[in-house]
TrEMBL record:
It is a multi-pass membrane protein. InterPro entries: GPCR_Rhodpsn, GPCR_Rhodpsn_7TM, TAAR, TAAR_fam. It comes from Staurois parvus. This is G-protein coupled receptors family 1 profile domain-containing protein. The chain crosses the membrane at residues 32-54, 66-90, 110-130, 151-177, 197-221, 250-270, 282-304. SMART domains: 7TM_GPCR_Srsx (SM01381). It is found in: Cell membrane. Belongs to the G-protein coupled receptor 1 family. It comes from the Eukaryota. Residues 46-301 form the G-protein coupled receptors family 1 profile domain. Keywords: Cell membrane, Disulfide bond, G-protein coupled receptor, Glycoprotein, Membrane, Receptor, Transducer, Transmembrane, Transmembrane helix.
């Protein structure tokens, strides 16, 4: 059996609801609220810009961009549905939204996090065929195949997350967890030893290792392509450069994801083996570092994708409301 999560004395108050004020000074709380609100705004509107750009402009309708669109939707929902409540929980050190919504929030939080890494795996596979097998890429990665990949990216994490959280499998054997929720108005992010290991390996380490392996192979092939550029035609040179640049940009997205979420998954697997001694503040820091990844993705696209800069300017200028605006050229001509 797992060791006790909190002091057993709490169990005697399990039918009592307490108001749990934060011990942080008001100035610090306001500062944190302003900073986190800024991150939420960037997350929501940055990813909304990606969603509108790829959805609206016909020139951007490609298998790779559909995967990017779906991942941006994941980050958008994280910014709209998850981050505001998590911000209040982190700043106030209390959960004001009830036990039922705690489960719903927990489920969607876990689901969207796993969905992101599933999308990154799918994008890595897409880039592998685009760079390493360009002749067969149009036949292997079609729009139909991409739709199936997106369906898997959303359905499997949804079943996993809601199944684990609704059944309380992730806290099975942890004495005192229910008391924290019922008695002290908390909604702690907690996994027992079994599920912390499953989460770490199934949702982070294994897919992360697969992605790193794929991008290493892509890098090797890209180097080979660089060596044959001198013999290639001008159009082929441009195509090779475009695919290689896209692979590098998306590998950067993957690298940022791993760096942002690695501390959280390491903390998650270590906490139950440390008798749940990791402080709430440490957990909040690593959790929000993971959330920041959703704000960084639009910034990466803006820095490295000219089409995103151009489409975003069109959206902000209002030209997107004009007739036939979906046919506006946003990609560089070969």
């Amino acid at each position: 059996m797992e060791r006790t999560l909190t002091n057993p004395v709490c169990l005697q108050f399990e039918n009592v609801s307490f108001f749990c004020p934060t011990d942080r000074p008001l100035v610090i709380r306001l500062g944190i609220y302003i900073f986190l609100t800024g991150c939420i705004i960037i997350t929501v509107f940055g990813n909304l810009g990606i969603i509108i750009s790829i959805s609206h402009f016909k020139e951007l309708h490609s298998p790779t961009n559909f995967l990017i669109l779906s991942m941006a939707a994941t980050d958008f929902f994280l910014g709209v549905l998850i981050m505001p409540c998590s911000m209040i929980r982190s700043v106030e050190r209390c959960w004001y939204f009830g036990k039922f919504f705690c489960k719903i929030h927990y489920s969607f939080d876990l689901m969207l996090s796993v969905i992101s890494i599933f999308h990154l795996c799918s994008i890595a596979i897409d880039r592998f065929y685009a760079v390493c097998d360009p002749l067969h890429y149009p036949n292997k990665i079609t729009t139909s195949v991409t739709k199936k990949m997106i369906f898997i990216c959303w359905s499997l994490p949804a079943m996993f997350a809601f199944g684990v959280v609704i059944t309380n499998s992730h806290v099975s054997g942890i004495v005192g967890y229910e008391a924290l929720v019922d008695c002290f108005n908390l909604c702690p992010i907690t996994f027992n030893k079994l599920w912390s290991v499953i989460m770490f390996f199934a949702c982070f380490f294994i897919p992360g290792s697969v992605m790193v392996g794929i991008y290493i192979q892509i890098f090797i092939v890209s180097q080979r392509h660089a060596n044959i550029l001198k013999q290639a035609s001008t159009r082929n040179k441009i195509l090779i450069k475009i695919e290689s640049k896209a692979a590098r940009t998306l590998s950067l997205v993957m690298g940022v994801f791993i760096l942002c979420w690695m501390p959280f998954f390491i903390t998650t697997i270590a906490d139950p083996y440390l008798n749940f001694s990791v402080s709430v503040d440490v957990y909040n820091i690593v959790l929000w570092l993971g959330y920041f990844n959703s704000a960084l993705n639009p910034i990466i696209y803006g820095l490295f994708y000219p089409w995103f800069k151009k489409s975003f300017k069109i959206i902000l200028s209002g030209k997107i409301l004009h007739a036939n605006s979906s046919s506006i050229c946003v990609l560089a001509k070969l």
